[in-house]
Amino acid sequence: MTVRKAAMVCYRLLQLAFFTMIVGELFDGWPLPWGWAFVPGGLALVLALAIGRSRPRPCREAAGREPVEVAPPVRGRWSALNSPADKVPSHGTHAYGQTYAIDIVAEGDTVQADGERGRPESAAVWPVARRPRDFPAFGEPLYAVADATVVHASDWRRDHLSRTSLAGLAYLMLVESAIREVVGAGWIVGNHIVLDLGDGVHALYAHVRRGSVMVRPGDRVRAGQMLARCGNSGNSSEPHVHFQLMDGADLDSATGIPFRWSGVGVPRGKEIFTVNRNLSERA
After folding, report:
1. What is the pLDDT of residue 134?
2. 270 and 182 within one domain
């Protein structure tokens, strides 16, 4: 077990102790006053900050290397969020191999009568949540970015409602995210696929749609082969694709690797890009 992996396990145990002590106060005969809960809670916060801000040595070395060029994982018209072209680490943390991760959302290919392209905007109050199918990214195909071997594939977790209102985001950040952190990395990324591209490079596709995965661990896939469909599982505010390259398949110990997509590069936040839907696809 690596130091980083051990730190993640310790972090989850401290979180579990914090929640257990808080809930314990609801029952008669609980021996500890509620204030003691902030001991493991505070230690968990300190450890989380240390894990998120510390840049692992392999990650420091990756910063000086040329980005690994792979094919785009999607087709059609998309825009970027939380991009490594804007800041590193892109998601504000080095944890879970996210240093160079990117989120992308589908903008829709066709203009509607009202001039919109189909992606609902975030609302301050109402609607509190939307169905996943209301977003054009939901159900969009995901493709292998290179010839690779499937290391992990899961698609049994549900696709939940969006968290795009202020109330929804508050619930996601203050309640849902904390619970998912305790349970483990798999609950944060939701349904996901990990590919081994060779030479110590792995690709992660997160928030995959329930029941859509078309491959199994051990399968050999070709670049352009359809793997699954975009969903809204895990720690996700709306249907989108979270993509990253990393140096291992274990999210607790992996470190990020910079990438670029052929013909696209690394789009900046809010930058719209289009990938030809007529690119060769292998089912």
Report:
1. 93
2. yes
Q: Which residues contact 77 (CB under 8 A, 6 or more apart)?
A: 106, 107, 108, 109, 117, 272, 273, 274
Per-residue exposure over 84-102, b if at least 16 CB sit within 10 Å of its own CB, e if not:
bbbebbbbebbbbbbbbbb
Q: What are the phi and psi torsion angles at 143 (to 5°)?
A: -120, 150
Helix-strand-coil percent breakdown of the chain, rounded to 5?
Answer: 30, 25, 50
CB atoms within 10 A of CB 260: 16
Asked if residue 194 lies in contact with residue 222, where contact means CB atoms within 8 angstroms, the answer is no
238 and 169 together in one domain: yes
Whole-structure pTM value: 0.84
Per-residue pLDDT tens over the stretch 236-246: 999 999 999 99
Question: Contact, 247 vs 258, CB < 8 A?
Answer: no
* Contact by Cβ (8 Å): 242, 216: no
Chain position carrying tokens 């089912």: 283
Query: Which residue range(s) make up the domain with 204?
Result: 64-275
How many angstroms separate the CA atoms of 53 and 94, rounded?
6
DSSP code string of 107-176: --SS--TTS--SPPPPBSSSSS---GGGSTTTT-EEE-SSSEEEEEE---S-------BHHHHHHIIIII
Yes or no: say if 190 and 157 are a contact pair by the CB < 8 Å rule: yes
- Same domain, yes or no, for 128 and 238? yes
pLDDT digits (tens, 9 = 90+) for 252-263: 999 999 999 999
Which residue, chain included where needed, has tokens 């072209």? 85
Under 8 Å between Cβ of 101 and 255: no
148 located within any domain? yes
